[in-house]
Amino acid sequence: MPKSLLLLLFVPCAALAAPAGPHAATPTREHFAPPGWEGSYRELHYSPVVRIGDRVIVSGIPTPDGADDEAKARALFVELRKHLRSAGADLDDVVELQSFHVARDQAEFRERIAPVLKAHREFFKGHYPAWTAVAVSGLYSKGATFELRAEAVIGSGKAPRATIGKP
Predict the structure, then answer these.
(1) Residue 29 has pLDDT above 70, yes or no
(2) What is the per-residue pLDDT across 80-95, written as a single tens digit (0 to 9) for each?
């Protein structure tokens, strides 16, 4: 095939793939606040949930009141689900978690994270997000013993695949 014909075939295809203008590929950014969290945006000036295209970022959610740390952890994952749903995502779409645990030392940290690990196993059964857990000296919310933040990609939980070697 002559080079000129190849060039004619390539140019129109490349033109179709290119964005139409400098902002054509710019994703939208939407801010969400589940019921009861509106004050975070209006008074504290942060978004509880931000959606950029199919990416959803959930700001840190502090532990709610509860009978014990295990009940608090379960309630926290329920609250995370509400935050995600406000932007069109769900727990299956979570690709990363970050948790912050008030602890003075390694032993207390391990004690504090144990109920969170138990609740995590209840809410993430088929596949698991990346997760970073950090010990901290304190959190903004008075009385909170831990806080959870997350990132999700809408639709990514529909057909997850784990390519993990056998032990």
Answers:
(1) yes
(2) 999 999 999 999 999 9
Q: Residue 165: inside a domain, yes or no?
A: no
Q: Which CATH number fits the domain that encloses residue 113?
A: 3.30.1330.40
As for how many domains the chain has, the answer is 1
More confident residue, 137 or 8: 137
Buried b (16+ CB within 10 A) or exposed e, 91-126: bbbbbebbbbbbbeeeeebeebbebbeebbeebbee
Domain that holds residue 89: 26-153
Residue 13 clears pLDDT 60, i.e. is over it = no
- For residues 139 and 100, the answer to whether their CB atoms sit within 8 Å is yes
How is residue 156 written in tokens? 């990514």
17 domain-assigned: no
Rounded to two decimals, the pTM is: 0.81
> Within the chain, how many helices (H) and strands (E) appear?
4, 6
The reply to whether 31 falls in a domain is yes
Interatomic CA distance for residues 46 and 33, integer angstroms: 10
Evaluate whether 79 touches 149 at the Cβ level (below 8 Å).
Answer: no
Return the closest-CA partner of residue 60 out of 75, 79, 42. 79
Is 71 domain-assigned? yes
